[in-house]
Amino acid sequence: MPRALITGITGQDGLYLSELLLSKGYEVFGLVRGQNNPKLDVLRRVAPEVQVLTGDLTDVSSLVRILAVAQPDEIYNLGAVSFVAYSWENAALTTDVTGKGVLNMLEATRLYAGDDIEKVRFYQASSSEMFGKVQDVPQRESTLLWPRSPYGVAKVFGHYMTINYRESYGMHASSGILFNHESPRRGPEFVTRKVTMAVARIKLGLQDSLTLGNLDAKRDWGFAGDYVEAMWRMLQQPVADDYVIATGETHSIRDLLDAAFKAVGVDDWARYVEQDPRFMRPAEVDLLVGDASKAREVLGWKPAVGFDELIKLMVEADLAEQSALVH
Ligand code: NDP
Ligand code: GDR
After folding, report:
1. CATH class in words for 188-219+250-288+306-326
2. What fold does the segment set 3-181+223-245 form as a domain?
């Protein structure tokens, strides 16, 4: 039975990856942060077989201890401060967790592997946010990185440190440069879920309007369930490498509003939507669209769920959740 350790297991991707690895017969261990983490209940419901170990990416000794217990064949480092807007307000914390946390995990992995570096494979959750002020359209593995947020800068550090451990120590360490991916499990602070929850609540008469920031930014949005499959495929390759994972399609926040309101039969959403500078960012990433042809050719990966289908399924899940809350 292969053994996997997932950091960030209580997050959106951690939940989908746990389900995927359990379905493939893995024994799954998850690093959970905090004394009484409220998200643990969801993990226990979704994937009760996961063995929970407590620790924190900023505490190297906790990582060393966890690796000694879990004895993993594969490590998926998904833990991060992941909300870009928050990273300006908490730049040092973001740097410690999202940036230095990667080094802590790589170093703990190197110590765990000892003389047998080949006994373990490492996945780093890199991000399209690293492309920032984009230097190519579409963005691919070779595109120059130009991050625009403390989060993006921290991810660039983690990305290059992962490559450095591969090149310095021969570690099987791969970095997935994943573009935005969403689902009904997406945190409500991210724009897709903020919109689909609000649309469901407006439809049910629980809310009158929705306040957003920049409506012109464009993102390449895919389905999280498809993207965790790509993570797993990267670690099954004989040689570690970096891969862009994306749909190759881009949509603005306005397109997102079109799709979400359409799912509840509303064509004219302008009367429900307000804008507030509070939700604008000090520096914006205007356009993301990825070229995932390397992943398609080497990993045989391609996304199954398209944009309209994704937004519709999120609105439907929020309608069900919100009506269950009021009934
Ligand atoms: P989430 O925000 O849903 O989950 C983040 C996870 O990190 C949570 O489980 C959180 O745990 C954990 N975490 C936060 N701080 C620490 C810490 N100090 N020590 C240990 N764990 C910690 O993110 P996603 O699931 O959406 O994303 C997974 C990873 O992929 C992240 O690294 C993200 O930056 C990256 N990524 C995501 C993309 C996306 O579109 N979703 C795209 C590209 C990259 P807690 O329960 O304590 O909050
Ligand atoms: P992003 O996702 O920053 O791309 O990072 P988010 O959904 O937060 O923002 C996407 C775009 O929407 C615009 N926007 C708003 N965003 C939020 N959250 N709230 C609003 O009210 C709002 N109004 C407009 C933003 O300005 C932005 O342009 C996500 C995270 O999952 C990262 O961890 C990951 O690395 C990247 O995706 C790829």
Report:
1. alpha beta
2. Rossmann fold (3.40.50)
pLDDT the model gives residue 309: 98
Determine whether the shortest distance from the Cβ of 196 to ligand 1 is under 6 A.
no
Q: How high is the pLDDT of residue 326?
A: 86
* pLDDT, averaged across the chain: 98
- Residues 77-112 as b/e (b if ≥16 CB within 10 A, e otherwise) read bbbbbbebbbbeeebeebbbbbbbbbbbbbebbbeb
**How many angstroms is it from 236 CA to the middle of ligand 1?**
23
| CATH 3.40.50.720 residue ranges for the chain | 3-181+223-245
Ligand 2 contacts CB of residue 314 (under 6 A):
no
| Residue 209: pLDDT over 90 | yes
Residue having the nearest C-alpha atom to atom 8 of ligand 2: 190
How many angstroms is it from 181 CA to the middle of ligand 1? 12
Per-residue pLDDT band at 262 (split at 50, 70, 90): very high
pLDDT surpasses 90 at 1: yes
Q: Is 127 assigned a catalytic role?
A: yes
Residue of 87, 165, 91 lying closest to 124 (CA atoms) = 165
